[in-house]
Amino acid sequence: MSVDPKPDELLSSWLHRLAIANGLAPRSFAGVLGRGNGMWSPRLDLRLLPHVAALLSEQTGVPHEAISALAMTGCALTPLLLPLRENARRNRSTWMQYCPLCLAGDDAPYFRRPWRLATRISCFVHGCGLRDRCPACRSGVAAFDQDELVAQHFCARCGFDLGRASKVSVKAPARRLERSIDDICKVEMAKGLMIGDLTSRLLRTPVVAGVSLGKTLTILSTSSRIRCFEWLADKHVSWLTADEDDAVARRRRLLLAAGGHDRLIAHFADFMDKHQGSPRPMRSSSPSADLGALLEAYSRATDGRGIRTKRPRIGAVRRG
Ligand SMILES: [Zn+2]
Ligand SMILES: [Zn+2]
């Protein structure tokens, strides 16, 4: 029996759903695919073996490319992925985060690819903080180890429904910072830039924030990373822009000041409204718009006037 992948679904999540739909517990399904024990499916997320992909495609009818797209093999953001860890130690990261409201709202609850990133702390749909543990038994998500026919949103250790976990709040400036970082990564990857330096800066944020001296972002629990982002959101952005190429630094400052590209495009449209008189087409921020070109144009048009790099109010940018 086949199961269609959901939008943004992670390979392991799809594999667990596929197993259950075929009457097999995820732990037994590992054997069917010739995998060992433990974190067999999260390991496939990181490195999808060609013969496993071929077998899955043959058995499910889902195209090979669609299956490969679920994995995170060779992703430029790999350094930002939460490390695979079977046991959840206090204050340490677990391998997977989740939004309880997303799981509760799904007709077939599934885990999203962006939840694997250490730079993600909240849900962009619901605005609440992500969680990385079962609130009842404090274990991390262990659906790969489930030995009964139980859907993956139930804790594999105690059976708690993760969709019923209470809401975690994250302050708005921290969520804006998170969104800006996400957009900066996307823009720089889309422009074909090397993002090794960017990911190193992001990994060092706990040191910059003084949250946990000497620790990298990926080893911290979600609640520690939320504290880290809340602290950073109030600080000057030089930690992400110093010693960078001018164009890169300017683009990062603009995205940080605006709180992500959606807001930036809205500012740009307002600016055009006010100064150039041909704003209408800009209003609908078409996904095919070349964001890089737009940013450069905006930057040139405003010449930095009125752009505050530190937590501006929207009006502050508009006045430029
Ligand atoms: Zn959500
Ligand atoms: Zn539990």
Give your account of this protein's structure:
With 320 residues, the protein is an all-alpha fold. It has a domain at 172-318. 45% of the residues lie in helices and 0% in strands. It has 16 helices and no strands. The protein has helices at 11-21, 26-32, 40-46, 50-60, 64-68, 100-105, 172-190, 196-203, 205-209, 222-232, 238-241, 246-258, 261-275, 280-283, 291-302, 314-318. α7 packs across α10 and α12 packs across α15. The radius of gyration is 21 Å and the shape is globular. Mean pLDDT is 88; it is low at 282-288 and 304-320.
Describe this protein with a few key phrases.
single chain, 320 residues, mainly alpha, 16 helices, disordered C terminus, binds zinc ion
- Give me the secondary-structure category: mainly alpha
Distance between the termini: 58 Å
Quick one: how many beta strands? 0
Mean pLDDT across every amino acid position: 88
Oligomer: single chain
Question: Number of helical segments?
Answer: 16
Gyration radius, in Å: 21 Å
Write the H/E string, N to C.
Answer: HHHHHHHHHHHHHHHH
In this structure, how is the largest beta sheet organized? none
Bound ligands, named by name, code or SMILES: zinc ion
Low-confidence blocks of residues: 282-288, 304-320
Helical content stands at 40-55%
Strand content: under 5%
**Mass-distribution shape:** globular
